[in-house]
Write a structure and sequence with these properties.
The chain is mainly α. It is built from 3 helices and no strands. The protein has one domain. 73% of the residues lie in helices and 0% in strands.
Length: 75
């Protein structure tokens, strides 16, 4: 597998937990409706924060790769 393809594959596989979390949140919204708009806002804010943290962690893993020197992104 070429280097760039492996980096992109591993980056996008890091979003599998985000997808599972999004499915769980959709089910939570369907079954447990929040009548307060503040609860809905904070739920959205927490999910956006979680997604941003996953993106930053994925980019960090792509750039460092401590055990796979051959596929590191050059600085």
């Amino acid at each position: 597998m070429p280097r760039n393809a492996f980096l992109l594959f591993s980056f996008f596989m890091g979003f599998v937990p985000c997808g599972l979390d999004a499915c769980g949140n959709v089910l939570g919204v369907v079954f447990f409706r929040a009548s307060d708009s503040a609860v809905q806002f904070y739920r959205l804010l927490i999910n956006i924060g979680y997604f941003c943290c996953r993106v930053v962690a994925g980019l960090g893993r792509m750039s460092s790769r401590p055990f796979l020197r051959a596929i590191r992104i050059p600085c």
